[in-house]
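Lab channel / #folding
Pinned by the channel admin:
"Please post every new chain as: sequence first, then the structure tokens as a reply. Keep commentary short and put observations after the output so the thread stays searchable."

First post following the new format, from NK:
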Amino acid sequence: MAGKELDSNFYIFLPKVLTTDPVADVEHGSRNSCYAGERLCFFLIAQFRGNKREDANFENWQKRLLRLCTSVSVSSIELMTRKDDAHAGGFITCWPVGSSKMEGEDVDLRKKIEPRITHRGDIIYPLDVRLNSLPALTRRMRLSVNVWTPELHFFHETENRTDIDFRHYLVDHDPDDLIEESKNAWRCIVNATLPVITPPTLRCKYFQVAGKHFLCIEVINILGKSVTLNEVDVRTSYDVDIENGKNMIHHFSHSKQDFKPRFSCLDVFPVTTSGNKASTFPVLLRPWEHYAFLFRIIYHENQMALNKQLEVVLKGSIKWDVETLKECFQTINTSYSLPVFIVRRSSVSVRASCQSSVGKGKRFQVKYTVTNTERDDGNVSLVWSPVNNASLKTLRNAPIMHSLVCLQPKVKIGCCPSGSSLTVNVEFLAVQEGLHEVGKFMKCKWHGESDQEDFSGSRSERQNTSPSGFTTVSHSCQIFVTGIS
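Reply from TO:
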């Protein structure tokens, strides 16, 4: 078989349109690239080398090749260079870790189709292979088709096995027949190098607003053709590997201990805003267009009581397709590795309560409750600081500092023991009508027992955390000022 000259030429063809008629698919043209994770359907086409296609040799050639056996494999030959780069606005590039095809309507589309003969006498072998085994950063891949005659089928199936008794095989088969069959036996490998189109780029940014944790996901279409986003999701790494966890629980099913996931104290939810049209999928992204999706990270304080901070390992994923994949009824799910974020729970929280409404020109009091969840005692002070939030307007479109007058802008409460709460009443004067915020603008300043520095206004306006890393959060509370005095 070695050095045997074949009477056939083989080449690989990627159809642009995929139906149940391979002959018609070839006439519609080909495509020259693929996508990591897709189910790649292609044709292996065999052509007769002889000049005369009307004689008996051509008919015998067709009969022999219609019985060929094939197997398909793929391998990555070039990877995209990965570099951890940050971008303007604090966004960080998230790199893909894997792509796979979503199970869908194409299950019945590519049923086993027998080889077809074209009007020229060429033979088309419909084949397919899943590309989810390729590394996510693959830029070029090698598609290999192993072709062999039926005489070698037994040896092909057993070449990687060590439990085959060839002595019994030779006893059951006439050696003369085996030698005669081997005269026409052959095997070859057909290779094709294909570019792999990278998935959309994903960037993320973690930030906090008023003690709440948010994650902004930005999807950028770099494919050079329109991309349809069917879903954008963010989950903890535990949720991604939940099936492995279930298997482990099943393995230790006799144990009575409860299985607690590492990130059971975290939830990630998408945030829908009035201007976020992408909250309804699918979303169409044209070349180089991008869109941002907002997620909120919520931690449960009762489950983080003993942890001041938590390292959060998240996984992002998008379900997407392009026109080529739509014609094949395929959707790709690409997973991304997000940077590790540190979620810190609030050391000290401030909650405000007051009457619902007050007349213009009247004085009113707001009760502030300061809760210390730290293990250490500390001195606590409250500072009314609407200057840093002057851009926030009331319902009457006036800055908050011109709407309310705090008659006690600096209040030193004193020592707040660990695990306890202190309350204090602060008096205000209602100056202008409208709905005004009195909770978020009352900032809490934390001073450890060793901190004897005088509590100055300039210092209070600069710091929201103590040198030891304690953090504070002020919750919202609003009052409505009416025109009735």
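NK: The chain has nine helices and 30 strands.
TO: also worth noting, The longest helix spans residues 56-65.
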